[in-house]
Amino acid sequence: MSGGRRAWLVVNLAAWLVTAAWCEPSTYVVQMSREEMPASGTALEWFAATVQSAAAAEATEMSLEGGAERIIYTYESAFHGFAAKLSEDEALRLERRPGVVAVFPETVYQLHTTRSPGFLGLQSEAFVGFRSSAVASYDVIVGVLDTGIWPESASFSDAGMGPVPARWKGACETGRGFPAKSCNRKIIGARAFSRGYEAFTGGPDGGDLSPRDHDGHGTHTAATAAGSAVANASLQGYALGTARGMAPAARVAAYKVCWPGGCFSSDILSAVDRAVADGVDVLSISLGGGVSAYYKDSLSVAAFGAMEKGVFVSCSAGNSGPEPVTLANVSPWITTVGASTMDRDFPAAVVLGTRRKLAGASLYKGVRHLSPEKQYPLVYFGGNASSPDPASLCLEGTLDTKLAVGKIVLCDRGITPRVQKGQVVKQAGGLGMILANTAANGEELVADSHLLPAVAVGQAAGKAIKQYLKTSPRPKATMAFSGTRVGVRPSPVVAAFSSRGPNLLTLEILKPDVVAPGVNILAAWSGAAGPSSLAADRRRVAFNILSGTSMSCPHVAGVAALLKASHPDWSPAAIKSALMTTAYVQDNTRRPLRDAAAGATGRASTAYDHGAGHIDPARALDPGLVYDIGRQDYVNFLCSQKLTPLELRVFTRSSKESCRRALASPGDLNYPAISAVLPAHPPAAKLTLHRTVTNVGAAASTYRAVVSSFNGATVVVEPTTLRFTRKYQKLQYTVTFTRRARRSSPEFGALVWKDAAHSVRSPVVVTYQSPI
């Protein structure tokens, strides 16, 4: 073939591929303007006509389909519009059609994968008699968007619960293996949303479209938020005790949006929309994706709609720490939750041939044991390489079975799931595994229910083992497992994996908001999955121990349900404020909360790591003052983000709203945290931020301000005293920052309003812009 002919074929093949991709149908979420809907006809008819009008000019099989056949969802509560199968060309045309506000391409979100009630003080006197009576009297409903629910779990027993609230409009969708009796007075609703996933993949594995949880993640998060009390709960003897959710008397509504291929935005949006219409009070959403703009994130837009209806939305911060600027779900109307440890761990140890003992953690409980009195050959496939190689990470197919058989294998943490590394070692014939942290995880120990004897060790221990391997001609080791230990000090500690700030979209909005228990959490589990979640794991357990911000998110959702029960008239922002201003920033050794990623140095975490601090539910019941925020306040904030009228309309859903009341600074949003961004040069190097507090404590009360000092700026609070004469009275104050020195790194402090009974703390962050 001649060179010219070959070049012609390559060019035309490339053009064909581009055209095919351009015309290939995908799912798009289309937001429509309710005010532009025709007076005659239904919303579905209008949506179908809109799709049909944007059909491609070419007479393809897809373009000839009717508009209604292309629509897979319609939305009407937290969002107004539809999801439909469109080509990229049609989506672009649709953006220009009358009545179309925005078009979002399908996005795949990922899951951010009992001692915590006692650790959080939910068994203190403040909750005696309150936990059941208050929640039952208000009948708070917690909606959980996740992988579904395992209704047979004892954590969802409805013993002693009254009738389903009359205001509930939800349903119990049945399906294969999920009969109507799966719902009760505890699980009052269950729905499955798979059309977006089906459009992308052809359908869930096995064709099971019911709300039943075959993964376990959704059952775990639902039980963490609102599981009923279950005595003698444990994971094969680990963490033995009474397991209960944060709000054990609250109702649960399960919305299955995650499938083996991920969690699709069209399904998530439909679930939020339906949950709001059903009548949930709180949403727990332990998933997230990338962040590029508030108005481009369909979950952010849906959460805004939920907030408008008075629904509190708790979302996980993500598991991409300890790197900075890794947060998901950063919108100010969402409560963004990071992860921390508790005062319980699961100690195990590695004993080297030199008899040196190195501390670690494990949840291994199997028939295959290593004798602590005997030493076994130890091997590491990383060699002396300066950077990790696939074998050192124990990736699939990388281990030399001849060298691994009959030995304990040292593996580095990273890339693949921790339990999967153990399976690789087991398949290679290894007797056991030591899983060593790298610098990214420091000394944080996350325990796992491995398929073979395995111990996780910190970075320092991992280095010591590698040094031993280099210097010993016949390296050996063994392992010992010690069960459960409580009273660990220091605790809590910010988890190394917990995603960190600052907020990439708006430095003036501090994120995460708070941290909550997210390491080694015991809760209910699916009967269809083993504790390791590996397909090869045939074990079945009623409870499992997991770690991730996925676990911290439902802790906050459950506590928010308790606050909603105690204060039914509080807005979502008031509940968030109570959680933030009462959070603590010292551990049980009375030192600042530490960062697990700092390793043995014990470096203190900052507000970019822990937000306002660790939640304290008992104090949050009576915060004294709250920073309330309404819909219009959020609109004014969005206006300060320089959104175009069409971008703003994504949230307002109306062309009649403008930005005449835009905030002078994004930092003027009445947020419970204060983040000041100071320009480099005077006179602009001075900034005044405004706040309004509402008295929810005693009618007559006087608060005085105490503010941290900063090296790079002076901070002045005016007035320094707030005198309230009645409950629900609102008073304003200002905080003025004046730059006084050259500084490049941010500074952290706090502003605390104190009266005789309350300490209302707002974290303060000062960021200094560099001269251009």
UniProtKB/TrEMBL annotation:
Membrane-spanning residues: none
InterPro entries on file: PA_domain (IPR003137), Peptidase_S8/S53_dom (IPR000209), Peptidase_S8/S53_dom_sf (IPR036852), Peptidase_S8_Ser-AS (IPR023828), Peptidase_S8_subtilisin-rel (IPR015500), Peptidases_S8_3 (IPR034197), S8pro/Inhibitor_I9 (IPR010259), S8pro/Inhibitor_I9_sf (IPR037045)
Active site residues per record: 146 (charge relay system), 217 (charge relay system), 550 (charge relay system)
Domain Peptidase S8/S53: 139-589
Inhibitor I9 domain sequence ranges: 27-112
One Pfam match: Peptidase_S8
UniProt similarity note: Belongs to the peptidase S8 family.
Keywords of this entry: Hydrolase, Protease, Serine protease, Signal
CDD domains assigned to the protein according to its UniProt record, in alphabetical order: PA_subtilisin_like, Peptidases_S8_3
PA domain: residues covered: 375-465
A Gene Ontology molecular function term of the record: serine-type endopeptidase activity
PROSITE patterns (alphabetical): SUBTILASE (PS51892), SUBTILASE_SER (PS00138)
GO biological process: proteolysis
Protein name: Uncharacterized protein
Taxonomic lineage from the root: Eukaryota, Viridiplantae, Streptophyta, Embryophyta, Tracheophyta
Signal peptide: 1-23
Subtilisin-like protease fibronectin type-III domain residues: 668-766
PANTHER family: PROPROTEIN CONVERTASE SUBTILISIN/KEXIN
Organism: Spirodela intermedia (Intermediate duckweed)
